Design the sequence.
């Protein structure tokens, strides 16, 4: 993308729309989960949002949907102008406050009731979009597919597999998982699916303008079921609903929907939880790609909450079909490092010390800061070669005594401390809040645990830091022992 070229085109559109007045400022807005680029253009009289997206087919879907929504009085941004290349366009400026921002501010002030009232208004608006949109949208304009069909469902489920599971080091049986995917898809395809499906209905895609919700980023919409969008919002980690609040919002949605037409309530709820399961898995795939691969903090921090939601659905028996491998993966994820919530204390350096097995892969940094240290303990004497230590770990005294008799272990630890201290001193002086130090060995059972424990004690005794200690393989070791 040529930034100057884009700015010139958007400026020309602005001048055309606003009576030949040129913008006095063009501000690039923060990116999110898409490749679209947004700018705020304004002068003392006018303000607008300019967009660039080189995917013309996706843009055409947005243009068509927007015009239809405006005709049927759905609150969406006004489409001011489209450049001849169909890659640049100008829409109305809806401000900066999203539903997510409202929820966060109300939660901090203790006015959660106001946030729930706003969410009820959003749900009522969603029903209007789904029903009226389903009757009027030109679905031939949809991109990349016209309907949420089997192919789309399998794309979502495999997104979870390839963009998260494959890099999470959580073991799974691929054939059994594919069998579960097929069973889940078969079930989901039984749900009524002639409505407009927003596709990415979450709190950051809802703008609050004078306490009224406006909807954005619906260009991925298509023909589909009602339950998908509902689950997208209510189970989104950023929405922050607890299980009781989710149930209240579900009941409110159902009651409003019942005022439009008659349906089987139990069947609707069963489909709702199945779509929630599929949507959360798709979202974790997105968090994996955007948060782990692209290092975007907002996405990586959502993974533990999404895993928690998966576990809640499974443990509360809300799925009416058998999905044994998916359930086993959910239980494994809930026991893994990916489920560990990571909140850094304000104004204090946190050092996360982790032991791991090289067979399972180097642990990811849950703070999204990246970097840190990884020390290979496989060059040290290995107690795992001897039968008497086979069922013990680096926490057990016989293993500790075995390792501490070797000078090379002591030299290794001293070198680690000297090296890390350089960063510790710098991080503390500059007010940084996170550093990760990991110790790996073959099985993650003896040498890595011992060195992680020793290093953590040294930290606590010598530095004013918050120490978080995590042994990746401990639960597996206990299960096998």
Sequence:
């Amino acid at each position: 993308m040529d930034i100057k070229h884009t700015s010139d085109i958007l400026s020309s559109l602005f001048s055309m729309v606003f009576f030949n007045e040129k913008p006095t400022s063009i501000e690039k807005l923060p990116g999110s989960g898409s490749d679209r680029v947004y700018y705020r253009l304004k002068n003392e009289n006018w303000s607008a949002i300019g967009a660039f997206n080189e995917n013309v087919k996706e843009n055409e879907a947005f243009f068509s949907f927007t015009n239809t929504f405006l005709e049927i009085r759905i609150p969406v941004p006004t489409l001011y102008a489209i450049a001849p290349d169909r890659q640049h366009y100008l829409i109305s400026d809806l401000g900066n406050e999203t539903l997510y921002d409202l929820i966060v501010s109300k939660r901090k002030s203790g006015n959660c009731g106001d946030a729930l009232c706003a969410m009820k208004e959003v749900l009522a608006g969603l029903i209007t979009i789904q029903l009226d949109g389903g009757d009027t949208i030109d679905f031939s304009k949809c991109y990349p597919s016209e309907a949420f069909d089997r192919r789309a469902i399998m794309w979502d489920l495999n997104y979870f597999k390839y963009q998260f599971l494959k890099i999470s080091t959580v073991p799974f049986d691929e054939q059994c998982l594919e069998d579960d995917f097929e069973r889940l898809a078969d079930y989901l395809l039984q749900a009524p699916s002639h409505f407009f499906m927003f596709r990415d209905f979450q709190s950051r895609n809802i703008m609050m303008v004078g306490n009224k919700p406006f909807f954005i980023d619906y260009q991925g919409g298509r023909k589909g079921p009602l339950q998908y969008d509902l689950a997208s919002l209510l189970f989104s980690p950023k929405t922050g609903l607890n299980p009781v609040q989710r149930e209240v919002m579900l009941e409110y949605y159902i009651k409003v929907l019942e005022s439009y037409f008659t349906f089987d309530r139990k069947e609707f709820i069963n489909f709702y939880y199945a779509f929630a399961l599929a949507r959360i898995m798709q979202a974790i795939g997105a968090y994996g790609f955007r948060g782990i691969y692209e290092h975007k903090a907002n996405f990586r921090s959502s993974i533990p909450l999404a895993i928690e939601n998966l576990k809640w659905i499974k443990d509360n028996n809300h799925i009416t079909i058998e999905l044994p491998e998916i359930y086993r993966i959910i239980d494994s994820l809930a026991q893994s490092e990916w489920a560990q919530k990571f909140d850094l204390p304000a104004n204090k350096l946190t050092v996360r010390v982790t032991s791991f097995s090289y067979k399972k892969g180097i642990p990811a940094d849950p703070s999204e800061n990246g970097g840190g240290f990884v020390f290979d303990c496989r060059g040290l004497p290995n107690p795992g070669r001897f039968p008497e230590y086979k069922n013990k770990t680096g926490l057990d005294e016989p293993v500790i005594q075995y390792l501490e008799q070797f000078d090379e272990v002591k030299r290794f630890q001293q070198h680690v401390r000297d090296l890390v201290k350089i960063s510790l001193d710098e991080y503390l002086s500059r007010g940084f809040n996170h550093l990760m130090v990991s110790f790996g060995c073959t099985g993650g059972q003896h040498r890595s645990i011992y060195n992680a424990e020793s290093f953590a004690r040294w930290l606590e005794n010598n530095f004013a830091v918050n120490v978080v200690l995590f042994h990746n393989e401990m639960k597996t070791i206990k299960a096998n022992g």
In short: The CA atoms of residues 158 and 282 lie 8 Å apart. The chain has three domains: 3-92, 99-339, 350-480.
